Amino acid sequence: MGHYNTVLSLLKQVHLRGVPVDAFVINIEINCYCHLNRVDFGFSLFGSLFKRGYEPSVVTFTTLIKGLFAQDQFSEAKNLLVKLVTEKQIEPDAVTYGTVINGLCKSGNTKTAIELLRSMETLNFKADVYCYSMIIDSLCKDRMISEAKNLLLEMSKKGISQDVVTYNSLIHGLCNFGHWKEVTELLREMVDRNVSPNVRTFNIVVDALCKEGMVREAEDVIELMIKRGEIPDIVTYSALMDGYCLRGQMEEARKIFDSMVNRGLQPNIISYNSLINGYCKKRKIDEAVYLFKEVSRKGMNHNTVTYNTMVHGLFENGKCGAARELFSEMLAGGQSPNLCTYRILLDGLCKNRLVAEALSMFQAMKNSEICYDIDCYNILIDGTSKVGSLEIARELFNEVFSKGLKPDACTYNVMIGGLCRKGLMDEAKELLKKMEEKGCCPDHFTYNLIVQGDLKRSESDEAIVLLEKMLAMGFSAHASTISMLVDLLPTRGQDPTLLNMIQKLVPRT
Predict the structure, then answer these.
(1) How many Å apart are CA 327 and CA 348, to the nearest integer?
(2) DSSP 7
(3) Which of 233, 255, 173 is nearest to 208 (CA)?
(4) pLDDT tens track of the chain, all 509 residues?
(5) HEC profile for 324-393?
(6) CA distances from 340 to 121, 302, 311, 498 (A)
(7) CA atoms within a 13 Å half-sphere pointing along the CA-CB vector of 308
(8) Which of 59, 218, 229, 258 is least buried, going by the fewest C-beta atoms within 10 A?
(9) Nearest-angstrom CA–CA distance, 174 and 397
(10) Cβ-proximal residues to 2 (8 Å cutoff; 6+ apart), any chain
(11) Are residues 230 and 264 in contact, defined by beta-carbon separation less than 8 angstroms?
């Protein structure tokens, strides 16, 4: 950003000294303002072109269109292109169309981008690989894989050669859906068409496999990668290490971490975050703390993810004081907490029965206009009801509606759970009814909570009626629910309705 300001400062001196400038210099000035999110100044300079007797070029218009997109003025950007085409002021080039398609895709207007691609065809303007690649990438991000594959096929039919960027986008999309067979076929197709998979191609596949817990397959991909002359980088090994962490295989993860150093690669903060998270999940908090401190010793800065991971790990291990101290350290170090940080703090405090402190923090969040969401309310409703503060839970539940937030299934479930724990089954069932009326679908947690509540009050007939409804909706009874039904056998063992229900719920061996 500083470079653009420097250029504008120099040009200001040029203008003050009366040095004449041409259209090329004015275009540079417009470009600087657009990069500084001052497209309004850019348009002011656009007007000065005519006053100086210059005609705006395609570069001028393309720069302004890019500036409009940068400031989320999507309609204005599209309209400017339409005006250029309809009024034939100037002939847009490949860069102009590419700029508009890129802006539309990045703003989530993939459908409009495709419409523009089709209109280019009617104007006999051949779209290039850049335009197609951007749309394919956007379709994949919108989870419209079939449409993306059709566009790739269309490129082949029109004689437009795909490049590695095109294939990477589609491979990424297929990986997200776990379509490994198609990924393999696409990699073969790349090779057949002399498009060499690059490091990013392999990293996409390795990362996706690791996220699915398929670390052995990921190692096979890395082996293939090396055979093809592509050198695995820090991203490759970090993904593999994260895969082992997700599987809880911390010894293997640590081996990968140490091997990075042996290969001359410097683990980055993402590498450390993965390993710290893995140790926290395995409740090896001392190892996590050691790594957390090592980050500073290595001259790196902790980021928000590092602090979030460590704070969560400390709370999970009952080290509430250490978690609060670390949060204070985070603030003192100038690292800004995000919404996830506050969720972790509220959840950690509630799970450790420090509900009053959690409520105090939440009030401070609201007073400071810190962003909060329905998940914060869910945590607090659950926390307050579990320590017996049902009235506070009710107040929080009602506040959800007054704040204009939309309760989800979890919101209703934690409130219903609180009512069931107090034996207020009529109120719990009334809330279930309201939940359905509001268009929020109950899930297996909802039904199991109420069924267990009925069973605790020895209202087994009502529980069985609700179980029938639950099964009809495709939900399963929890093991704890089945156990409570089985416990009724000594007193109601001859009840055919009860026996029939248990037979439905207990799988036959």
Answers:
(1) 12
(2) H
(3) 173
(4) 458 888 888 888 888 888 888 888 888 988 898 889 898 988 888 888 888 888 888 898 889 889 888 888 888 888 888 888 787 777 888 888 889 899 999 888 899 999 989 988 887 788 899 999 999 999 999 999 999 999 999 999 999 999 999 999 999 999 999 999 999 999 999 989 999 999 999 999 999 999 999 999 999 999 999 999 999 999 999 999 999 999 999 999 999 999 998 888 999 999 999 999 999 999 999 999 999 999 999 999 999 999 999 999 999 999 999 999 999 999 999 999 999 999 999 999 999 999 999 999 999 998 888 889 999 999 999 999 999 999 999 999 999 999 999 999 999 999 999 999 999 999 999 999 999 999 999 999 999 999 999 999 988 889 999 999 999 999 999 999 999 988 888 877 678 888 888 888 876 55
(5) HHHHHHHHHCCCCCCHHHHHHHHHHHHHCCCHHHHHHHHHHHHHCCCCCCHHHHHHHHHHHHHCCCHHHH
(6) 46, 16, 11, 45
(7) 15
(8) 229
(9) 41
(10) none
(11) no
What's the CA gap between 282 and 3, in Å, rounded?
47
State how far the Cα of 295 lies from the Cα of 307, in Å rounded to an integer.
Answer: 12
DSSP 456-500: HTT-HHHHHHHHHHHHHTT----HHHHHHHHTTHHHHTT-HHHHH
pTM exceeding 0.70: yes
Task: State how far the Cα of 79 lies from the Cα of 65, in Å rounded to an integer.
Answer: 9
CB atoms within 10 A of CB 375: 17
CA distances from 153 to 156, 166, 187 (A): 5, 12, 15
Give the separation between CA 129 and CA 137, rounded to whole angstroms: 12
434, amino acid identity: K
How many residues in total does the chain contain?
Answer: 509
Q: Are 432 and 400 in contact (CB under 8 A)?
A: no
Q: Using CA atoms, how far apart are residues 378 and 406, in angstroms rounded to an integer?
A: 11
Residues 6 or more apart whose CB falls under 8 angstroms from that of 180 comprise none
Instruction: Quote the CA–CA distance of 268 and 23 in Å, as a whole number.
Output: 45
Identify the DSSP state of 443. Answer: -
